[in-house]
Amino acid sequence: MRVNGAVESLDVQPWVSLLDALRDRLGVTGPKKGCDQGACGACTVLADGVRINACLALAVQYDGREITTVEGLASGEELHPLQAAFIRHDGLQCGYCTPGQLCSAVAMLAEHRAGMPSAVTERSGELTEAEIRERMSGNLCRCGAYNGIVDAIRDVAAQEAR
Amino acid sequence: MKPFAYVKPADVAGAVRAVSGEPGAKFLGGGTNLVDLMREGVERPDTVVDVTGLPLDTIDELPGGGLRIGALVRNGTLTADERVRARYPVLSQALLAGASAQLRNMATVGGNLLQRTRCPYFYDHAAACNKREPGGGCDALGGLNRSHAVLGVSGSCIAAHPSDMCVALAALDAVIEVESVRGTRRIPMTGFHRLPGDTPEIETELAPDELVTAVELPSAPFAARSRYRKVRDRASYAFALVSVAAALEVRDGAVTAVRLALGGVGAKPWRAHEAERILLGGPAGEESFTRAAEAELAGADVRPGNAFKVHLARATVVATLRELNTGEGTA
């Protein structure tokens, strides 16, 4: 598979999760193992641009796919606009959930642009606070940095809209 | 996780051959439930047959105005399909009310149909669970049972069915198409899941070697006015305490078509046939909505932890029907 732009060739047992393959075999430790049962979102990565929980994905199922983790969001030394906004708005405290929050937010904005509905709006409208909270509900933050996370995402969404 | 052999067939014939005569084989879709259960040691397959390479990922028109949804269509894709949103909004809403965006992007329609209960005793190897170990007993009966079912339960099992999608499919009279080496057959959604009885480990009519290939939604013009309403402990990303899938058509104050199904309260996705019988042809209003809800829930078998669900279900049914009838009371 391709991980953050680099082609990686791996021999893994079929029961190895994508998360373990990334962290333990490739040393890509951005995605975190929080709950290991799809309940917290700390392991969120992008598979061909689509956000998934890497802990519930078997690595063998993602053969040949393009995987993006938090390590792949910046362009060299230039942070992704969401990374910069998370810093500006204090969208983190301990930072453990942040790699998952960032990957999730990148894909969430893309889903919203593509017209994906949510439980808050049946038609994709303005990204209100309620909308962002619903669309980001798969990423928990035990420090409770939600207000900053929401502000950071709104900021970037507004920049994109301009 | 117990080691297993992994195969990824390219066509349906190869997939059903791979499990034929192999009781230890399991189909794998998006993995959101099965991988978790394998990690917890609740599911221990010898062979995992990954079906995500099969060409079952399209949504097609049926003659007469229905839709045929391939079993491998991802839940997220289904929520966004314009035909589903226009003709069966209850289905799109039910899917959007479930899980998280990440999980919806992974989970398949076929996998969602076969989703297993989130009863905590089912996952806990230190607890007794007839579903995990038949004959072992049920610690939920006298334990923490706030999340458990009140309809269709037995002395062996009170686990609630966890799916939101299935509640909408039950209301819509969906038909499940399945295939095995013996051929294709079609199972009505309302008869697809089984009540626990003395064998809670057998959850559906699906034989172990049968593969779900599609879900068919029959034409139902009145379902354009339908709604899924879910009540849970937090605003998002939680299983239902109670949920209601409803479609309602009213002409000159009388109910001319109605579909009602309940989630969170049933041992299986609960089609409310008794409530529908009372509502159909009668006046649309608070009194008849309440009477119908109460009749459906009259057979509830409650425990101290989940007795509140009867009141909550009645109120949620009435609120959902009221909203469809008057357009008021949006959640």
Automatic annotation (TrEMBL), chain B:
Residue span(s) of domain FAD-binding PCMH-type: 1-222
SMART domains named among the record's database cross-references: CO_deh_flav_C
Species of provenance: Nonomuraea longispora
The protein, known as: Xanthine dehydrogenase family protein subunit M
GO molecular function terms listed in the Swiss-Prot or TrEMBL record: FAD binding; oxidoreductase activity
PROSITE patterns: FAD_PCMH
Keywords: Oxidoreductase
One Pfam short name: CO_deh_flav_C
